Amino acid sequence: MDTFKDLKRNYSIGIFDSGIGGLTVANAIFKRFPNEKIIYFGDTAHLPYGDKSADSIRFYSLKISKFLLEQNCKMIVIACNSASSAAYDTLLEFFDGKALFVNVVDPLVHSVSYQGFSKVGVIATKATVRSGIYKQKLRTINPDLEVVQLATPLFAPMIEEGFHKNNLSKAVIENYLSHESLKDIDALLLACTHYPLIKESIDQFFDGKIKIFDSTDVVAEVVEKKLAENNLLAETNNGSHAFYVSEYTDSFEATTKVFCNRELELIEKPIWQ
Ligand code: DGL
Questions:
Q1: Which ligand 1 atom is the nearest neighbour of the CA of 191?
Q2: Ligand 1, residues at Cβ distance < 6 Å
C-alpha cells in the first residue's frame, strides 16, 4: 500500500486512553509541540481497561481509532499500557498505512534497557501484567535482567476519582509497594499512564533511593521522530485541542483543565451507541 500518502501536516494527533491517564502523555506532547492540534479520547464508559479481557480492549481500541481517523488524525498515540499491550499489533494491521501509530510500551522499555540495572520492578494494570509484554521485551534486550511485575489494579480508579495525595492514596500505595517481590529493585517502571499522577508519592515511599521511569517525555520523543521521518510535523498552528469522553465525569474535566492550562471544550461522545 502507498503508505501515509493521504496524511497532511495540518492533520491532528489523536491520543486515547480509558480516562485521564493518557493526559500525562498528552501533556508531554502539548509542551513539545505547541503547533500540533491534539484530539483526545477518554473512554470513561469502559474504565478501567486493566480489568477487561484483551479482546474487549482490542474492540474498544479499534472503534476509538476509527473515530479519531474520521477526525483527520495523522497519528494515533495509544496512551494506555493496557491498550498498547493488547491492541497495538491489531491496530497496525487493521489501519495499515492510514495513520502512524505510537504505543507507550516500546519507548519505556528502551529508556531503561541500557542503564545497567540488575533488577527492575514493573507496576501496571492486571491486563498489562497478564500480557507479560514488559518482561518479554526487557528480557529480549537484556536476558540477564531480573524483571518483577506487580499488578496494582486499585491505582487507576483511585487516581481517576481524584485521590492523588491523601491518606487513602498513601495507604493504597504503601500496601502495594511493600510487596516482597519489589525488595532490592534498582528501578521501577510506571507501566500505566495514570501512575505519573502519583509519582511523587511513589518516590517518597522509596525515599528517593531508586530510579522511577514513566512513559511521558520518552513517548513525546518517539512522536517527534516518527512525524519528522514522515514530513508530518505541523509548520503552523493547527488549531485548538478537542477532548472527547465516552461518558462525562467531573474529575475528567477538572484534571483536563489542570493539564491543558487553558479553556477547553469537553465533548461527550458515546461512540458505542
Ligand atoms: N492508563 C491505562 C494504562 O496505562 C489504563 C488504566 C485502566 O483503565 O485500567 O494501562
A1: 4
A2: 17-18, 21, 47-50, 80-82, 125, 128, 156, 192-194
